[in-house]
Amino acid sequence: MIQHPLPPFEHRRTLRHSWLLLTRRRGLVWLTFLYIFCLGSFWVWSILPLDKLLLGLEQGGSSLSLLGYILPILVWWSLTQLLDLRLTQTTLGMIKTGDRSYRLPWKEALRRWLPYMGLALVLQLVFLVGGSLMLVPGAYLLLRFSFAPSLSVDQGLGVWAALRASWRLTEGHFYLQLAALGLALGLSFLASSFVLGIYIAYPVLRLYFAQLYYYLRAEGVPDAVEGAQA
């Protein structure tokens, strides 16, 4: 499939728009804080008690110990996906409408929560399999399926439809996505050297990738973003 021609994507200009939007919508920083807190809690709970759990099971521990280990992991993971969904809905809505005060009722996030978790689980399995083969296949799959969550939210697609749509959307744009990924990693590394820097960089990058998503869909995002600055 050959993509229709698009004007060059201006990374610097897009990042500047993202920063300006964030300065007018600081609530994204608090949402990011909650997201990173839940994500960190998920990883901490997943890793730290594992050795004690395995030792307890070897010594004849009950299945309740296993349940007590798994249940909090599921809770933290589910909350992480809910907040990630909320971030996706908010950033896409801000870019699509050009309204920096864009807000969607939480009930809309709750309504899409289960399908979004299903998509997240499939994506994590795909990236795990791809990464276990080699770094390159894992990175390639990451780029091709990276917009599946955005398509799921923006177009209301199911799991498999969102994956197929992301594959079609990113065809022919590998180097553009690779440049965007490199920029995101570099900015994240730079932000991590400052206290609380990641809480600023992360929402900026979410807005940046929301603009990239609409750019690939050729929906005239730069004009919409400029309208948000008025």
Query: Could you state the order of secondary-structure elements as H and E?
Result: HHHHHHHHHHH
Decide which structural class fits the backbone. mainly alpha
Strand content: under 5%
Q: Share of helix among residues?
A: over 70%
Radius of gyration equals: 19 Å
> Which regions have little confidence, pLDDT < 50, spanning 5+ residues?
220-230
N-to-C terminal Cα separation, in Å? 38 Å
Mean pLDDT: 84
Overall number of strands: 0
Report on the biggest sheet: none
Q: How many helix segments?
A: 11
Assign an overall shape. Answer: globular
Question: What report would you give on this structure?
Answer:
By secondary structure, the protein is mainly alpha-helical. It has 11 helices and no strands. The protein has helices at 11-23, 27-47, 50-58, 63-97, 106-133, 135-144, 148-155, 159-169, 174-192, 198-216, 221-228. The longest helix is centred in the middle third of the chain and has 35 residues, at 63-97. The model is unreliable at 220-230 (pLDDT under 50).
Give the topology.
Blueprint: H1 11-23, H2 27-47, H3 50-58, H4 63-97, H5 106-133, H6 135-144, H7 148-155, H8 159-169, H9 174-192, H10 198-216, H11 221-228
Helix pairs in contact: 1-10, 2-4, 2-10, 3-4, 4-5, 4-7, 4-10, 4-11, 5-6, 5-7, 7-8, 9-10
Structural descriptors:
230 residues, mainly alpha, disordered C terminus
Question: Can I get a quick summary?
Answer:
The protein is mostly helical and 230 residues long. The chain is built from eleven helices and no strands.
